[in-house]
Amino acid sequence: MIIRVVLPTHLRTLARINGETELHVEPPITQRSVLDALEVRFPMLRGTIRDHETQRRRPFLRFFACEQDLSHEHPDTPLPDAIATGAEPFLVVGAIAGG
């Protein structure tokens, strides 16, 4: 399946991507399968989105799909059908902190 992924600017720069990218991902389509495919295609992103050891999401990054924050969902939970069909992109968004 073709999955569309949008990364924050700093990760697009690191991976030398302009705009969104498309990935071939084997079902089931989950956060884990999308991020695994992303790291295979762009090895320079390994460790920037997920911790090398724990595979947990890095602080200050969030995952969105179909206007829903999926950052705290289990990584093996299937993503919405609109993501699996390529109708909507999977978004990796840089969170903003401050006070």
Measure the end-to-end span: 42 Å
Q: Which architecture would the CATH scheme give at its second level?
A: Roll
Uncertain segments are: none
- What is the CATH superfamily? Beta-grasp domain
Q: What is the H/E string?
A: EHEHEEHE
Number of strand segments: 5
Shape: globular
What attributes does this structure have?
alpha+beta; Ubiquitin-like (UB roll); single chain; 22% helix; 5-stranded mixed sheet; 99 residues
In short:
This protein has helices spanning 9-15, 31-41, 81-84; strands at 2-6, 21-24, 61-65, 68-69, 90-94. With 99 residues, it is an alpha+beta fold.
Word description of this protein:
The chain is α+β, with helices and mostly antiparallel strands and 99 residues long. It has one domain: Beta-grasp domain (Ubiquitin-like (UB roll)). It has three helices and five strands; from the N terminus they run βαβαββαβ. The protein has helices spanning 9-15, 31-41, 81-84; strands spanning 2-6, 21-24, 61-65, 68-69, 90-94. The chain has a five-stranded mixed beta sheet with strand order 2-1-5-3-4. The chain is globular, with a radius of gyration of 13 Å. It starts with a strand and ends in a 5-residue tail after the last strand. 22% of the residues are buried. The model has no long low-confidence stretch (mean pLDDT 94).
